[in-house]
Amino acid sequence: MNSTTRALDRVSAAHIAHAFxxxxxxxxxxxxxxxxxxxxxxxxxxxVVDALRGSAAxxxxxxxxxxxxxxxxxxxxxxxxxxxxxxxxxxxxQAQRAARNAGLRDATFEVVDLAAGLPAHRGSVAIxxxxxxxxPQAQDAILDAAIAMLAPGAKLVIRTGLDDGNQRxxxxxxxxxxxxxxxxMNSGPKRYPDADxxxxxxxxxxxxxEFTPLYGRTPFNNxxxxxxxxxxxxxxxxx
Length: 239
Fold this sequence. Notes:
The longest helix is centred in the last third of the chain and has 16 residues, at 167-182. The chain is built from 9 helices and 7 strands; from the N terminus they run αααβαβαββαβααββα. It is globular and about 55 Å long. Strands 3-2-1-4-5-7-6 form a 7-stranded mixed β-sheet, with helices on both faces. Helix content is 41%, strand content 16%. It has a single domain, classed as Rossmann fold (3-Layer(aba) Sandwich), CATH 3.40.50.150. A hairpin with an 8-residue loop joins β6 and β7. By secondary structure, the protein is an alpha/beta fold.
C-alpha cells in the first residue's frame, strides 16, 4: 500500500496525539482521541507528506485546524518552515498548545479569516478539506492567491472532494454537512470543485498538476491535487 492510501501507523499516531492531552487529568481529552483516530484512519497526512518531499519551500497551511499536518511533517523528517492559519480561535489555541507540548520547531499558528484575504507568503501552500466549505467566488479567489504565492519548485497541495456525482461524492457531502451540525466545522459544504476546471486553472498558470485518489479505506470521495510551479531549468526543458 503506497503513501497516498495508507494512514499513519499506531505508534506515530499515538506519539503525535500525546501532545493534545489536557494539562490535568480531569481536562477534556476530545482532541487527543480525535487526533489519534484521525491520524490512524485518514490517508491525508502521509499523502501530503509524500507530495511535499523534495521541496524545501516554506509551507502555508490554509485552514490548518488543530495543526496535525505540522506534527506529521516533523514526524516524517520534513523540517520546512510551517505557518498554519485558521478562522477558528479554539482550534488555533489547541494547535499552539500542542505545538509547544511537542516542541515543534519553526511552526506557528495564527487566527486568520480567509474570507478577509490571505497573508503574504512565498513558497508552498496546503489547502486541505477547505475549498468545499467556502462559496464558489471565494474558492476562486483563494486558489488564485495560492497560485500567486508559489515559488519555483514549490507546490500547491489540495485535499478535497470532487464534484463527479458518484456515490462517494454523495457520502462526502452528507458527512461534511453533519460535521457542521456537530459544530466541528464553522460552515457547511458550498461547492465541490470540478476536476476539469481545476486542471484548466493550473494549465493557464503554467503549473504541472496531478490528481490522485486519497480516500484509502474511507467511503469519501477525497482526492489529492498537487500543482507544481516548475523551476527555470524545468521550464526550459519542457519548452
